[in-house]
Design goal:
Number of strands: 17
Catalytic activity: L-aspartyl-tRNA(Asn) + L-glutamine + ATP + H2O = L-asparaginyl-tRNA(Asn) + L-glutamate + ADP + phosphate + 2 H(+); L-glutamyl-tRNA(Gln) + L-glutamine + ATP + H2O = L-glutaminyl-tRNA(Gln) + L-glutamate + ADP + phosphate + H(+)
Distance between the termini: 84 Å
Pfam families: GatB_N, GatB_Yqey
Structural class: alpha+beta
Shape: elongated
Family: Belongs to the GatB/GatE family. GatB subfamily.
Number of helices: 15
Protein name: Aspartyl/glutamyl-tRNA(Asn/Gln) amidotransferase subunit B
GO molecular function, one term: ATP binding
Length: about 500
């Protein structure tokens, strides 16, 4: 039986590290990239006598996320201890939330690749089961460091604040799973609560995968799920899910049962491997955290978090589409909060125009400007060309003051010098010549100097029109208005046709 005869059912458990200055239950500093074991304290090491105190900023960030995703926020939630032994967990348990997480329900919108709606951006809704807060474990490094089999532990990350976003089993392909992760990454970055860098481990996930016969699609009957742990890139997320689909399909085709298991993904062999079997909540011996009271969320906390939630990525994309932008352009501009804000500010600085105004601003930003920004290794927030300066440049090109080609040169200088485009145009003489009298004089000089080409043009070799335009632009040192040159050239050529016919 082919893989296509099965429907894939996927749910993701996404771990997102919050960008707070200190850890989840202690005032120990934390940031990514510090020297190993430099950011630890007695609590991080799990020493006796230490007591946990929740990080207020982490709670505020978690509330923003829950509200942005449309979750129901519990006014009272509870902390719990999740017990398991692993070298990177010094206490022997992890403080998390179990039966009463702070956020319930909610949903994530992902692109629906198989549909199109009237707005040009179709989405599929992936339901969430809940979101809970917890602390991270340390980081193990196995092998390397000049000694095969050596394992090292970095406790810097131990106790870092996390939210775990648990979806319902609504995803139906590896591609959808990657799309879901991308949407979450974009959302938490937009909210300003996490760097969400999968390579650094501040965003990672576990994937629950099961198969069922195609005829059972849409029912409540599911296959046996297996969980792939610690996937930290979009590429490996897709590859691991595809590998697990193949493994389960092979078992079912042979008439064998899929055993509920926890898996790892071997990137070198492109295979999932069983780490342990039949892991369940009971194995963790959850019980209420005795050293902390219940977490109570006041109305004031909720309102403050709600006020801090900006325009969300999927809402922004729809707004950009309504301005006449393509789905691709809307996706690029809404990918990062800073880029979206730059576009909005530049568009606001432009004089109201026709339907093409937004597209015009988009083209300059996503083409010419981002080329400079990326080439200099800058973030858009650090771009020396302000949104109002870019709007000024666009206006200079559109009203014919300077040519499009000159506009690119002016943009380069504006970026390099942090000087306004208008000042550069005046200083360096980029203003176009649009005086018809002056342009006509240049055209007549060019025509008189090139009788052979004129005869060929009048004889039907229309491509030579570009030759005459080029000669006029050269004579004017690039400052003649190309549109005016074309118009006046047509008039001069008409005169020569009339005289030759006489």
């Amino acid at each position: 039986m082919a893989v296509a005869d099965y429907e894939v059912v996927i749910g993701l458990e996404v771990h997102c590290q919050l960008s707070t200055e200190t850890k989840m239950f202690t005032d120990c500093a934390y940031h990514v990239g510090a020297e190993s074991n430099a950011l630890t304290d007695a609590y991080s090491w799990g020493l006796p006598g230490t007591l946990p105190v929740p990080n207020q900023r982490a709670v505020e960030y978690a509330l923003r996320l829950g509200l942005a995703l449309g979750c129901a926020i519990r006014p009272v939630s509870r902390w719990a201890r999740k017990h398991y032994f692993y070298p990177d967990l010094p206490k022997g348990y992890q403080i998390t939330q179990s039966d009463l997480p702070y956020a319930q329900g909610g949903a994530v919108e992902i692109p629906d690749r198989g549909a199109a709606d009237s707005e040009g951006f179709a989405t599929k809704t992936v339901r969430l089961h809940h979101i809970h807060m917890e602390e991270d474990a340390g980081k193990n490094t196995h092998g390397g460091h000049g000694s095969e089999g050596l394992s090292l532990i970095d406790y810097n990350r131990a106790g870092a604040p996390l939210v775990e976003i648990v979806s319902e089993p609504d995803l139906r392909s590896a591609v959808e799973a990657a799309d879901y992760m991308r949407e979450l990454r974009q959302l938490v970055r937009t909210l300003g609560i996490s760097e969400a860098n999968m390579e650094e481990g501040t965003l990672r996930c576990d994937a629950n995968v099961s198969l069922r016969r195609r005829e059972l699609a849409g029912s409540e009957t599911y296959g046996t799920r297996c969980e792939i742990k610690n996937l930290n890139s979009f590429k490996f997320l897709e590859a691991a899910i595809l590998a697990e689909i193949r493994r389960q399909a092979d078992l079912l085709d042979r008439g064998e049962a899929v055993v509920q298991s926890t898996l790892s993904y071997d990137t070198a062999r492109d295979q999932t491997k069983i780490m342990r079997t039949k892991e369940a909540a009971a194995d963790y011996r959850y019980f209420p955290e005795p050293d902390m009271p219940a977490l109570r969320i006041s109305k004031a906390m909720l309102e403050a978090a709600r006020a801090a939630v900006p325009e969300l990525p999927w809402a922004r994309r729809r707004r950009l589409l309504s301005l006449g932008l393509s789905t691709y352009d809307a996706g690029v501009l809404s990918a990062e909060q800073g880029l979206a804000a730059y576009f909005d500010d530049a568009l606001a600085a432009l004089k109201p125009g026709g339907e093409g105004t937004a597209k015009l601003a988009c083209n300059w930003i996503t083409g010419d400007l981002l080329k400079l920004v990326n080439g200099h290794g800058h973030a858009i927030e650090d771009c020396p060309v302000t949104p109002s300066w870019l709007a000024e440049l666009i206006a200079l090109v559109e009203d014919g003051t300077i040519s499009r080609r000159a506009g690119k040169e002016v943009l380069d200088k504006s970026y390099a010098e942090a000087r306004s485009p208008a000042a550069i145009v005046e200083r360096d003489g980029y203003r176009q010549v649009s005086d018809t009298g002056a342009i006509e004089a240049m055209i007549r000089e060019v025509v008189a100097a090139n009788p052979k080409q004129l005869a060929q043009l009048l004889g039907g070799k229309d491509k030579l029109r570009g030759f005459f335009v080029g000669q006029v632009m050269k004579r004017s040192k690039g400052q003649a208005n190309p549109k005016v040159v074309q118009e006046v050239l047509a008039t001069v050529l008409a005169e020569h046709r009339d005289s030759s016919s006489d």
